Here is the input.
Amino acid sequence: MRSPAVSLLALLCALLLAACATSPIAPRTEALFNDHLFVAPSERISADDVFALSDDMHRFLKDRLAGQLQSSDSRAALIDAIYVKGQLKLEYDSTTTRNAAQAFAARSGNCLSLVIMTAAFARALGLPVQFQHVYVEDTVSRRDDMLFFIGHVNLTLAPRHSILKFRDVPNLMTVDFLPPEETQGLRVRVVEERTIVAMYLNNRAAEALARGDLNDAYWWARAAVGHDPELVSAYNTLGVIYRSHGNPVEAEKILAYALERDPKNTRVVANLIRVMNDLGQVANAQALTRRLEVLEPNPPYSYFDLGLQAMRDRDYTTARDLFAREVARAPFDHEFHFWLASAYASLGDVEQARRQMLLALAYTSTRRDHDLYAAKLDRIKASKLN
Here is the structure.
């Protein structure tokens, strides 16, 4: 299932993407934390909660799966119970990252949440689990002036009690929340559980930041860095939090460290440019800007923003062409289809407007946007009849 995912003038890389041991924090990494700037978090923040099964989840396994496991492949029985037969009546929610127990209780979650919940059930059944990063183009969405870059992960299940390495096990079963035609032939990279956990923690940090809770955002991001010091996106998130909190010196330190780890990371470069401007380091900011223009000459939303300006100028033909370019590189973004529909409607092309609004409706993953697009579609249909 593909969905638009989720910078206070910032760019956040929150990959939805699992061995359980926490990686030790490198001495240099520890120096990047500044706990004294923040008060205690308002909620429990623990990696131990990510895959933990609730009492309700244990009851589900006992009541819904116990009988089936004696006569069938436990992997197929699990997937049938969760997804195919719809016993849980799950709803995709791109806006919220939940741990296994929360996703089960809410019967909803984003891609990462559903992967985590499935893995938690699988391990309770004794099924070996392998997590994989799928090389698809990141989904990008924007909330206010904050950009979110969302990647994609899936998981592969081996038969019960398999003792061989995954690559040597026949009859593997991959669980993916994108349609098979979208992932067929794509490259994947195995990722460790600690990375999955860190990405969960990083997502929670980004979500707290998006709602303005800088204090909890700091502790979630700190936990992400601590759990997997190799996850550059967590350093990036922490840098954005420092800047938003009014700590540009601390932000520059951690973003510079992240850039050393990943010199071509455009999100880190963009955020470091802003911090250097905050600190009055104009020459350094200009040099990084030139570097960013080479790395990313047409950043996400560039055509879209120009299209919005064209709509304000009532230049609907230009707006249509610009929105179409953004749709071409992000075909699953509901907002781009919505505005392309609006441009077509302004040009009097009702049929194309209807088609694009149907696509916006199909790709949205929130109830609010769904209702908005449905109302707009009704208006387009009404105008076609008149």
